[in-house]
Amino acid sequence: MIPGSFNYHAPSSLDEAIKLLDDLGDDAKILAGGHSLIPMMKLRLAEPTHLVDINGLSDLNYIKEQNGYLCIGAMTRESDLETSDLVAEKYPILKDTSEVIADPLVRNLATVGGNLAH
Questions:
Q1: What is the pTM of this model?
Q2: What parts of the chain have a pLDDT lower than 50?
Q3: For the chain, domain boundaries
Q4: Are strands 69-72 and 63-66 parallel, antiparallel or unpaired?
Q5: pLDDT tens-digit series, residues 69-102
Q6: How many CB atoms lie within 10 A of CB 75?
Q7: Are 28 and 51 in contact (CB under 8 A)?
Q8: Under CATH, which number does the domain 61-117 receive?
């Protein structure tokens, strides 16, 4: 099935994305990896009026340690957990588990934030 029509937005900053989501309210859905949302749209189980594509927001893509904690950005791809030296050296169980999430094609697009949100 083909998804219904929607308005597409690609904010260039986190502030712009937050404002868009605030202005559009429940009529908007966030598009990141899209592995959950796109199939639901194709089946017409989700029919958002607006899609806010956050793929261009590099500020949300990081793996770092801060104040003794591992911090992972919402737009970090699952595959980034597999290739991160920090994760491999200090959090090997996270690296091991990331390697069995779906298949490599999905891991290259799926985001940590999307998996947690869904």
A1: 0.87
A2: none
A3: 7-53, 61-117
A4: antiparallel
A5: 999 999 999 999 999 999 999 999 999 999 998 8
A6: 21
A7: yes
A8: 3.30.465.10
